[in-house]
Amino acid sequence: MFVALRSRFVATAYSILLNQEDAEEAVQDAFLSAHCHLGNFEGRSALRTWLTRIVLNSALMTRRKRKSAAINSFPDSDGSLDEDWTEKVRGPHKNPEVIYAERETFEFIDGILDQMRPVLRQAFTMTYYDDLSSDDMRANLVEFLREVVPVAAENGVRLAIHPDDPPFSLFGLPRVVSQARDIQTILDAVRKVC
């Protein structure tokens, strides 16, 4: 499972750290932590969700450490340096492997999008490719639910949404549910469908 989801975990860590090497190190630390604490997994969430939270915590901890290290990162200006410290500063350009991986991921997603029904394809595309506000995202969720809720009800499937989803903005996307009125809007829309 770790191997299958590793690239997704690295992408999650990268969205916080904005550095591929730091993201990979954070994921490695997260896997080690998960392995050490696997006995503490209570099963109140999916294992994948638990691992994602550990990766997020690891990435945030790495970012916190990096900020405190940056305060003392400049060398003394006594002129006794063996090498120029500016040579160690990373440039703003992405690693070619990251660029290729992103391109490959988008091609894969586009292939899946071509197979979706038009309404679902539009909701996904608007959510992840367009600049949307929280209200736009909520409207997309309502449209999605109008398609999904009747089918779920027919098949005895119960749907749920977290009361604070997501708890903070991920990948630059706005939050869909963060206040009681957001939940009320969603519930009212779903009641109209049922």
Count of helix runs: 7
**What value does the Rg take, in angstroms?**
21 Å
Q: Give the rounded overall mean pLDDT.
A: 76
* Content-based structural category: mainly alpha
Helix content: 55-70%
Number of domains: 2
Through-space gap between termini: 37 Å
User: How many E-type strands?
Assistant: 0
Please trace the helix and strand order, writing H or E for each element: HHHHHHH
What's the overall geometry? Answer: globular
How is the biggest beta sheet arranged? Answer: none
Low-confidence stretches: none
Summarize the structure.
With 194 residues, the chain is mainly alpha-helical. Helices cover 64% and strands 0% of the residues. The protein has 7 helices and no strands.
Q: Which structural traits does this protein have?
A:
194 residues, 7 helices, 2 domains, mainly alpha, Rna Polymerase Sigma Factor, Chain: A
Tell me what the structure shows.
The protein has 194 residues and is mainly alpha-helical. The protein has 2 domains: 70 residues, RNA polymerase sigma factor, region 2, helix turn helix motif (Rna Polymerase Sigma Factor, Chain: A), CATH 1.10.1740; 79 residues, no CATH class. Helices cover 64% and strands 0% of the residues. Helix 1 packs across helix 2, helix 5 runs antiparallel to helix 6 and helix 6 crosses helix 7. It is globular and about 50 Å long.
Which secondary structure elements does this structure contain, and how are they paired or packed?
Layout: H1 2-17, H2 20-36, H3 47-71, H4 96-115, H5 118-129, H6 134-154, H7 180-193
Helix pairs in contact: 1-2, 1-3, 2-3, 5-6, 6-7
